[in-house]
């Protein structure tokens, strides 16, 4: 899990907008396995370790259903500590009747499904980084069939007890409108490195030689519009930087490329060229 701590920059939290808070809470507790850290009338902070929130749910006033062919969330990805945890989660979700997609990405094994509002979720586990193959500074990834028969040998049908305490937010994958503008913002502005590229359709970026902390694609169409402010989907996500020096440098780099920068106490708020709001913090 050292890809999600200092000295790396990583996604530490995702905030979602939903239409029915109680329905979503039921799903994220009983299907995904979160616990409640804090709750108000319109917002819930969810946790795996009982101390830190990695996901929050909020119901905006005048909320609108999720709209297709816009920028915004493709999926957020929950990283489980071990392959055994993923196998146990397979048994649990099958027992709950969840319809799963799946893939072997060579660097990881992943399950895919949606929440009740259509927000995309990935639950995955990483293979040993020593097994990842690199071609120069790009990691080799694929979209191969997941070997469920081999995976479930690691688990037990009754073993799932909710998310393990050392679960983290592994990465986020976003729909964007323009890959060139996105590249400038995330690489020159936020300080990430490109670790994989799928032609002119998708970028995968990271720090610390991870396979990706952020995925960015134009699969909803080049020039896709931003969703309405009240639409179901992502409200914002949080990037955690290792120290004040790194955060200050990013702030200056964002200003240099003309990006919006708003300072608020010990955090910075910015918006990428496709309208995705990001909170930068320590």
Q: Mind sketching the topology for me?
A:
Elements (H helix, E strand, L loop, with lengths): L9 E8 L3 H12 L2 E5 L3 E5 L5 E6 L13 E8 L3 H13 L5 E4 L3 E7 L5 E7 L7 E2 L2 E2 L8 H5 L15 E8 L3 H11 L3 E6 L3 E5 L7 E4 L15 E8 L3 H13 L4 E4 L2 E5 L5 E5 L1
Parallel strand pairs: 1-4, 5-8, 11-14, 15-18
Antiparallel strand pairs: 1-15, 2-3, 3-4, 5-11, 6-7, 7-8, 9-10, 12-13, 13-14, 16-17, 17-18
Outline of the structure:
The protein is an alpha+beta fold and 282 residues long.
What does this structure look like?
- The protein has 282 residues and is an alpha+beta fold.
- The protein has one domain (2-281): 2,3-Dihydroxybiphenyl 1,2-Dioxygenase, domain 1 (Roll).
- The chain has helices at 21-32, 83-95, 148-152, 179-189, 244-256, and strands at 10-17, 35-39, 43-47, 53-58, 72-79, 101-104, 108-114, 120-126, 134-135, 138-139, 168-175, 193-198, 202-206, 214-217, 233-240, 261-264, 267-271, 277-281.
- It has an 8-stranded mixed sheet, with helices on one face.
- A hairpin with a 3-residue loop joins β2 (35-39) and β3.
- It starts with 9 loop residues before the first strand and ends with a strand.
- InterPro entries: Glyas_Bleomycin-R_OHBP_Dase, Glyas_Fos-R_dOase_dom, Glyoxalase_1_CS, VOC_core.
- Keywords: Dioxygenase, Metal-binding, Oxidoreductase.
């Amino acid at each position: 899990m050292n890809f999600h701590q200092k000295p790396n920059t990583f996604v530490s939290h995702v905030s979602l907008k939903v239409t029915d808070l109680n329905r979503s809470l039921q799903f994220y507790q009983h299907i995904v396995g979160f616990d409640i850290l804090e709750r108000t009338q319109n917002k819930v902070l969810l946790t795996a370790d009982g101390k830190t929130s990695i996901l929050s749910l909020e119901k905006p006033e005048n909320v609108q259903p999720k709209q297709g062919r816009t920028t915004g969330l493709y999926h957020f990805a929950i990283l489980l500590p071990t392959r055994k945890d993923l196998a146990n989660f397979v048994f649990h979700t099958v027992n709950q009747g969840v319809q799963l997609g799946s893939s072997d990405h060579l660097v990881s094994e992943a399950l895919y499904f949606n929440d009740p509002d259509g927000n995309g979720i990935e639950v995955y586990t990483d293979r040993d980084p020593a097994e990842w193959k690199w071609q120069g500074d790009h990691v080799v990834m694929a979209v191969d069939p997941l070997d469920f028969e081999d995976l479930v040998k690691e688990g037990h049908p009754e073993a799932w007890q909710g998310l393990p305490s050392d679960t983290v937010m592994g990465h986020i994958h976003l729909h964007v409108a323009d890959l060139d503008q996105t590249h400038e913002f995330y690489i020159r502005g936020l300080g990430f490195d490109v670790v994989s590229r799928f032609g002119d359709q998708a970028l995968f970026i990271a720090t610390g030689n991870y396979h990706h902390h952020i995925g960015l694609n134009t699969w909803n169409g080049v020039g896709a519009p931003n969703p309405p402010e009240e639409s179901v989907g992502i409200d914002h996500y949080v990037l955690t930087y290792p120290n004040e020096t790194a955060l200050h440098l990013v702030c200056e780099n964002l200003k240099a490329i003309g990006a919006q920068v708003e300072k608020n106490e010990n955090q910075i708020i910015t918006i990428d060229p496709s309208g995705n709001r990001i909170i930068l913090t320590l």
